[in-house]
Amino acid sequence: MRKNKLKGFMLIELMLVITIISILLSYSFLSLSGLNTLKNDIEAETFGNVMVNFINTSREYCRSKRKGGHIYLNVDRECLTLNCGLEEVNRLPLPAKFTLSIGRTGKEIKIDNKGMTGDACTIIFKDRKGKRHYVTVCVGTAYVDFKEERGIYSY
Question: So what CATH class is 1-148?
Answer without folding.
Answer: alpha beta
